[in-house]
Design goal:
The complex is a heterodimer of chains A (544) and B (269). Chain A is mainly beta. Chain A has helices at 2-19, 37-41, and strands spanning 62-63, 76-83, 95-97, 100-105, 109-114, 120-125, 143-146, 149-153, 158-163, 169-174, 189-191, 194-197, 209-214, 220-225, 255-257, 262-266, 288-293, 299-304, 320-326, 329-337, 342-347, 353-358, 365-368, 374-376, 387-389, 403-404, 411-417, 420-424, 438-441, 450-457, 462-469, 477-480, 484-488, 493-498, 504-509, 519-523, 526-533, 536-542. Chain A starts with a helix and ends with a strand. Chain B has helices at residues 8-23, 29-33, 39-52, 54-57, 82-91, 107-120, 133-141, 166-169, 172-180, 252-263, and strands at residues 151-152, 155-156, 192-197, 202-210, 214-219, 224-228, 232-238. Chain B starts with 7 loop residues before the first helix and ends in a 6-residue tail after the last helix. The chains are: A mainly beta (544), B alpha+beta (269).
Chain lengths: 544, 269
């Protein structure tokens, strides 16, 4: 009786509330139909959603949305902000699925919010051990989705499947032993019915790999090591037993071409980073692009950007795939602005080098030979006393996503013209300890260097335009059919450029460093653009 | 419950405290906190630092603007004693990227790291300078006229860095270099900008801050100006100090005295 009375009272009380102009009432409860593989294959055709880390399987980060465009972007205003409760560096690239946004947080947490208001549905906090081995901060860059399940990497080297409607854990597998220096920070990539995912730990003497897990059960379907084992081709590119601790991590998300059935993934530095004495040889497949069969993980081809790297020039960049006109015919290419400061256009069906040139200041190579192999400048290896080399350890660019516009045919990258003093040290490998063999030192303040957003023509590898920023940025780039390039900067700006000319059209000061890439999506026919800055995810739209 | 080696030093400190309480001995808490402070220990600490810490703090321990890791070569803002440094290394700093050292790292190695960090800053009591700080204070406000640009304890000018605690961040050799070759290492905050606005106006001033879309300066009359870059027609950046060299205008003795004075400028404990 008491319960019924309470219910009646509650209903009476709630009627006038619902009758008011409550903005939440205007939000249609999202239908959230399951994300099938077919939807992921055609993700570009539902631009109201952002269904994977790089937007589409080709990683172009190009959206067909054009409600916000070069003529009205100047009227963009803040719509909502979501404050991440754990203070750390936000490198998250959210997903948006039918009006729901999924945001990863440091260290390894996940929250689902209403994409129109930023208000929370649920959150998942991953329990972490105290003795993590992580090289470069507590980061997580995003999740993948298939069906109604989200897949997240965690700092203790687990892969977790989470129910997208509730945040409940469906399965949780240990990909590797975190106590040996393995960790996971990157968003996985869905390929058919598998969750393809990489590993971090290149500064701890790990042996890198790329894994594929059964999306339903979490069982390992295939593993491809990024360093060949004994008796395998390429193992002889490592002297002695150095292959066992050679790093070659895979800590950023790759791309997939369904026609070729190839997964493209970048690999990190050989270890120890700055002392190559104990790992003589090319050190395959470190600092390379690997093309793997999507069903079996079998290596089909590889392209090594920096053989026997001694400067930590990871090839941890997102590969961008496109079909472009090159020397009179359509070519299936992969575009890659590398940390070593060279830009490459590569035939993605066979891995052959097409063209490549420096896109940022570099002093370590005279150029590239006809196969794209660098011609080294002698004497630029790190020394015990220190030697100045460009680019610095952080590279001409780094892990942050580049973008490509289907309208302009240009490739956009955040670039840095800097230099650093490189030191070499002798170190013995110890399980779970850093194994880097040296380090670096800036001899000048950051403001003395030059940073910019550069637009590169993949046919000529020439820079078409550049927009200066300062200081070195680690923000990713997103392009739209509205003729826009969206990106951020280390000094806390979020801004829009004309994709054709580089002209600045809009900017806002968000106050803290942008370490993430923007996304764009739509709810109820309104286009939004989101970006993480500091510990906040900000979402913008046109003025109402 | 057995003896926990991780906390032996706390036991040691507690014993020291009891001794002081009982016998009234002078407090030596810092020294008692680190028995691993020989040159060998410092070398071992440096090896560990270069391997484990330099990624964020820099190979020279001078910090990194990008990672937010502070300069460790001067006074530490979060630890004033070796025990404080030890605790930060063991526990990390919550809410920051500063993680604890590996849990299984023996205390002896943590103390070696403490010894290295401690050795990065000069203990002023171990420094014998030829100059006189008292005379240097007079040069500072007299022949050197340094106070027309620099403040000390709230007194002086605004056109150079506040020197109230300069002795904590610069050693005597660096201070002498600052006086003789001021253009060698100039922080961007003290570069000069010459700006012509789109309205034709011309202003010159110290570069207080510059970012991708805007610039702020202070002119010689201490006016603060903030420019959107869209309203700048041309800007010249001079990456030199506005301070002259004192190599010719002051005597060697004056310079020695000035260095002694500036090195004495530190927070009183």
């Amino acid at each position: 009786m008491y319960k019924i009375a309470s219910l009646l009272i509650a209903l009476c009380v709630s009627i006038p509330i619902f009758a008011q102009e409550d903005p939440f009432q205007t939000v249609i409860t999202p239908a959230f139909s399951p994300i099938t593989w077919e939807r992921l294959l055609n993700a570009g055709d539902e631009p109201e959603n952002w269904l994977m880390y790089s937007g589409t399987l080709d990683s172009q980060r190009y959206s067909k949305l054009d409600q916000i465009n070069i003529s009205n972007v100047a009227t963009m205003e803040l719509k909502w902000a979501y404050q991440i409760p754990v203070i750390d560096r936000a490198e998250t690239v959210p997903l948006v699925v039918d009006g729901i946004m999924f945001i990863t947080e440091a260290p390894s947490n996940l929250v689902a919010v209403d994409a129109q208001t930023g208000r929370q549905y649920w959150r998942y906090d991953h329990e972490l051990p105290d003795d993590l081995r992580i090289c470069c901060g507590r980061n997580n860059r995003g999740v993948a989705i298939l069906g109604e399940t989200l897949y997240m990497s965690t700092l203790d080297a687990h892969l977790v499947a989470i129910d997208a409607r509730t945040g409940n854990v469906l399965w949780d597998v240990a990909v590797a032993n975190y106590q040996e220096g393995y960790s996971k920070t990157a968003a996985p990539l869905i390929v058919k019915d598998k969750v393809v995912t990489g590993i971090a730990g290149g500064e701890f003497g790990i042996r890198g790999f790329i894994d594929a897990y059964n999306a339903e059960t979490g069982e390992l379907e295939w593993r491809t090591y990024t360093i060949p084992g004994e008796g395998e081709p390429g193992n002889d590119t490592w002297s002695g037993d150095s292959w066992k601790t050679g790093g070659s991590a895979t800590w950023i998300t790759g791309a997939y071409d369904p026609d070729e059935n190839l997964v493209y993934w970048g690999t990190g530095n050989p270890g120890p980073d700055w002392n190559g004495d104990a790992r003589l040889g090319d050190n395959l497949y470190s600092d390379a692009a690997m093309a793997l069969n999507g069903d079996t993980g079998e290596l089909v081809w590889h392209f090594q950007f920096t053989p026997h790297d001694v400067h930590d020039y990871d090839s941890i960049q997102v590969p961008i795939l496109a079909d472009i006109q090159f020397e009179g015919r359509t070519r299936k290419v992969m575009m890659w602005a590398n940390r070593n400061a060279f830009f490459y256009t590569i035939d993605r069906s066979n891995g052959r080098f097409m063209i490549g040139k420096p896109f940022a200041t570099q002093t370590w190579a005279q150029g590239l030979d006809i196969n794209g192999r660098p011609i080294r400048v002698p004497g630029m290896e790190p020394t015990y006393e220190g030697i100045m080399v460009s680019p610095p350890i952080t590279g001409g660019t780094n892990w942050y996503s580049p973008g490509y516009s289907q309208q302009t045919g240009l490739f956009y990258v955040t670039s840095f013209d800097g230099e650093q003093e490189f030191f070499k040290r002798d170190e013995e490998y110890e399980v779970g300890e850093r194994f880097t063999g040296g380090g670096g030192r800036y001899a000048q303040p950051m403001d003395a260097f030059h940073s910019s957003i550069r637009a590169i023509n993949p046919v000529t590898a020439e820079i078409e335009w550049e927009f200066p920023i300062m200081p070195r940025s680690s923000a990713g780039i997103t392009t739209t059919a509205g003729g826009l390039v969206f990106t951020g900067s280390a000094d806390g700006y979020f801004f829009a450029l004309d994709a054709a000319t580089g002209e600045e059209l809009w900017h806002i000061s968000l106050g803290r460093r942008v370490h993430a890439a923007p996304i764009t999506y739509a709810v109820n026919d309104q286009q939004f653009v989101s970006i993480a800055s500091g510990n906040v995810v900000y979402t913008f739209g046109l003025r109402d | 419950m057995g003896f926990n080696s991780r906390f032996w030093w706390q036991w040691l400190l507690a014993s020291g405290a009891i001794s002081i309480f009982l016998f009234g001995l002078p407090a030596l808490a810092e020294d008692a906190g680190n028995l691993y402070n020989t040159s060998y220990d410092i070398g071992q600490g440096q090896r560990y630092f270069e391997r484990q810490c330099s990624r964020c703090h820099g190979f020279d321990a001078k910090g990194n603007d990008e990672t937010g890791a502070p300069d460790l070569t001067g006074r530490l803002s979060r630890a004033s004693t070796n025990v404080g440094i030890f605790n930060i290394l063991r526990d990390g700093i919550a809410g920051t990227a500063m993680l604890p050292v590996a849990a299984d790292l023996p205390d002896s190695q943590v103390w070696q790291l403490v010894a290295y960090v401690d050795a990065l800053s000069i203990d002023p009591t171990n420094v014998n300078l030829s100059g006189s700080a008292t005379s240097g204070a007079m040069v500072f406000t007299g022949r050197g006229d340094c106070n027309s640009c620099h403040m000390v304890s709230g007194q002086g000018g605004r056109l150079g860095p506040d020197l109230t605690r300069v002795g904590e961040r610069r050693d005597p050799e660096e201070l002498m270099s600052d006086l003789i070759t001021p253009h060698e290492h100039v922080a961007p905050r003290w570069w000069t900008m010459k700006i012509t606005g789109t309205d034709g106006s011309y202003r010159e001033g110290l570069r207080m801050n510059e970012d991708s879309f805007s610039l702020r300066i202070m002119d010689n009359d201490f006016n603060l100006w903030s420019y959107p870059k869209t309203r700048i027609e041309s800007a010249e950046r001079i990456e030199e100090s506005t301070m002259p060299s004192y190599a010719q205008t002051l005597t060697e003795s004056d310079l020695d005295d000035l260095v002694a004075y500036m090195f004495s400028l530190r927070k009183e404990i």
